[in-house]
Here is the input.
Amino acid sequence: MTSSLRFSTLGTLKLPTQFTFLICGMISIILGILYVPLPFSFRLEKRLGKVFQLLPWRIAPPLIVFIVLIWAGAGRQIDVIGMLAQSLRLATPIGLGALAGILCERSGVINVAIEGMMLTAACTGFVAALYTQSIWLGLIIAVLSGGLTAALHAVLSIRFLVNQIISGMVLNILAIGITGFIRKAFIVDSPLPAPPVFPAWQIPVLSDLPLIGQVFFRNQPMEYALLILVPILHVLIFHTRWGLRTRAVGEHPQAADTLGVSVFKIRYINVIIAGLIAGLGGAWFSLETVGNFDDMMTEGKGFIALAAMIFGKWNPGGAFGGALLFGFADALQIKLQISGVQVPYQFLSMIPYLVTMIVLAGLIGRATPPAAEGVPFVKH
Amino acid sequence: MGKKLIKLIGLGLILLLVQGISQVNAANITKVGLVTDVGKINDGTFNESAYKGMMRAVQEFGLKSAFIETRQPTDYEKNIEQLISEGYEMIITVGFLVGDATKKMAQKYPNVKFAIVDFAYDPPVPNILGLIFAEDQAGFLAGSLAGLMTKSKIVGAVLGMEIPPVVRFRKGYEAGVKYVCPDCKVLAVYIDSFTDPARGKSAALSQIDEGADVIFGGGGTTGSGAILGAAQAGVWVIGVDQDEYMTTFKKGEAPGAKKLLSSAMKRVDNAVYGAVKAAVDGSFKGGTALFNAGNDGIGLAPFHEAETAIPDTVKAKLKEIADGLKAGKIKTGV
Here is the structure.
């Protein structure tokens, strides 16, 4: 049997299925052996240093993706580039939500209200775009309303010391009610035509690169926003004074306070910026993807974002990887159904959550949340 | 002695039950309530359709009405019970997923009349009227239209959750495509939600990547998102349940409206109207009512802006198929 992986116009890669499996299996076994902690301390990784240590983490994910593709394409043809592009697209709201979660939780405030922030932003952004007939004004309103919802969460959990999970859940429920009302009052019977969704931007030169260009450089604005925000947040959190203070406040607020860092200020700023980013995620639904607002259209992506955040161990890069994993699983699930593979689609949709549980259980390195997360700070 | 007593009690119970049923059938109603599936009464698909049907009867017969929009599947029973506690004598529940809750409540309150969209009970419950549609025939018509309009000989379908009415839509659609175009390929995807337009669109775009040039969207706002996205990507689309030109495409105001060929309609409104009417004039009976091409329970919506783009030969063929389904000459095989 052969697997055909079609790369859009680039051509089709035809591989013998079983032989490829064999090769991939051998690579995995070799990698495994190299990293087995041998009794006589012959651990290659120790001898060869950090680059080598990280090697399996660099090789394993693409290898797994490749194996899955070969399996899915066995005896039929799979359009790889289209699927990878869809993965990134579906990963966008999850990734933006996860970044929002990281900003909040790194400063010690639990944020389960990402779902509500995105839903509110999706709704208000669409209403603004509808009545001003400008999608960019819609985006600005979406981002601001995400920030506003977050500010409410901040006031409740920082000023009034409300249990942060309860505050978040209340905001989620509030968002369902408010957006339902706004939809009924301003959207359903509006005679105005809905503005078209954000166009895809082709980055000159880069978009002509084979494979990479088609997946990464022919996207709509929110995808670019995610791709840009991931490295920016990484630098901000780990290489700036503000990032250091954020982490200090999240790990040990009393110590940070003693050293003259304003815990309240840092937390307010972080939570509100998180809301703005969640607002971008909300705009993805109504302004970039569907071009309409429907009740509960965020469909729990805000909660999956939390899973991606935990998967990425509260690091922007890791969370991006987590979001891609969820997006890939979803795109693959759709692709397999299209190509007629007889696997229950529910099974495939389940896999990312299983992986998250494995991560949570500490099998692939322990995921440790910031120490002061969820603990309200009271100044003595 | 003991056995006789039990038999007597049993007989008494049966008599009571019969008495109860006849009472249900005799009493006319003045108050009717509706409980939606997860979703709103203005969702642009079947909840809205059911609500419109109920309101038509309400206005015509001067009834009192109320509705509850369900937010969580766990709330179905609670919502039904709330309406009953406020004295509503007839409850309409919308959707296959509310089936179990409706049955439970119907058995608990045998004097209340129930009508449910998309569910048939076997054995029938005496105070529930199941309103069933021949989705396979509606899908068959949509599939025929898709099969006649495709140039690439590949057509797609984005469907909601894999539940019997949706499965019937899919199978009918596939059969319809094959009926007019035996060498056409059908790509179909189930999405495990009726309220996820973003993923619906994603599935539609994946199908377009694979060469599909007609997309059928069947499943709440998931399907609406799919056809909205596909129409804007420039391929033909077909809606479901209601005439989506009026709802999803906002009477032509939404971008892509000129790519909507038609919609595979289920006249949920007519069915609900009929059920309420029967309850009002005293002819209400538990059981199952089937709505199909034969009694105009299903059919294609007008072509609207696609009117000129659809060749007359296609329209003639569609008419022939619709007549065939009506007369029972064409079978969908579902």
Notes: Chain A touches chain B at residues 79, 82-83, 86, 89-90, 93, 176, 180, 183-184, 188, 191-194, 196-197, 284-285, 289-292, 294-297, 299, 330-331, 334-335, 337-339, 345-346, 349 (CB under 8 Å).
